[in-house]
């Protein structure tokens, strides 16, 4: 009986040369129209009136405060999600328990749920007027909504899965043989993690941190709901871009947007470098 040949050479012959070229051209045109041209136009618009206008746009008091607040939120959210992402990934990879599928589903919830809904969830919990914890927070003069704590909370929520989702497959793939061998030799849990587990997951962990940081810096929907958009108080860089754009300050809007685009490009380059490094190790 003749068996099918699925070798690479055979697969190439299934699509004629003109067909492959057409598919490549379609893919490239789609990416150029959808990604490269709009992204390039951001930088063209940002520098359209010269470097002086660009610098003036990104160095106003409002812009600098928005940049500082954005970095502050990321400075809190990224380490928190790095730690808990590692813990969640380790628990899912190394432990067996009844609610494991449920925990996996909950871990992916921030990917599936709209950031606006995340903001509304925070309102329902922490608002002084109609929040579940509102009366208690008001009685203790604690302000969460329309203040920095709620912005950190929602940003932490939407960036939760990245580290765990990057580290989990690596932990599953590496198994526990080396860790068990080290344990039989008398290594402590910390020594096992530091000398065996961490080197194995290092690239995945760094990639997860890079993605978490990029998502935290660019978050808009959830922060928009809970921040109140108070200029020089609770306005992040994305909210500042929206504000100046709606005020027809297009150069300022595109200049600040170019900063976020630059972070995205650097993230892409860093992520690709880490991915290739992981494949080579």
TrEMBL record:
InterPro entries attached to this UniProt entry: CysW_permease, MetI-like, MetI-like_sf, Sulph_transpt2
Domain annotation ABC transmembrane type-1: ranges: 67-270
Source species, domain of life: Bacteria
Record field: transmembrane: 21-44, 64-90, 102-124, 144-164, 251-274
Chief subcellular location: membrane
Coiled-coil ranges per UniProt: none
Pfam families: BPD_transp_1
Membrane topology classification: Multi-pass membrane protein
Record GO terms (molecular function): ABC-type sulfate transporter activity
Subcellular localization, as worded in the UniProt entry: Membrane
Record-level GO cellular component terms: plasma membrane
Keywords: Membrane, Sulfate transport, Transmembrane, Transmembrane helix, Transport
PANTHER family, alphabetized: SULFATE TRANSPORT SYSTEM PERMEASE PROTEIN, SULFATE TRANSPORT SYSTEM PERMEASE PROTEIN CYSW
Subunit text: The complex is composed of two ATP-binding proteins (CysA), two transmembrane proteins (CysT and CysW) and a solute-binding protein (CysP).
Function: Part of the ABC transporter complex CysAWTP (TC 3.A.1.6.1) involved in sulfate/thiosulfate import. Probably responsible for the translocation of the substrate across the membrane.
Protein name, per record: Sulfate/thiosulfate transporter permease subunit
Species assigned in the record: Gloeobacter kilaueensis (strain ATCC BAA-2537 / CCAP 1431/1 / ULC 316 / JS1)
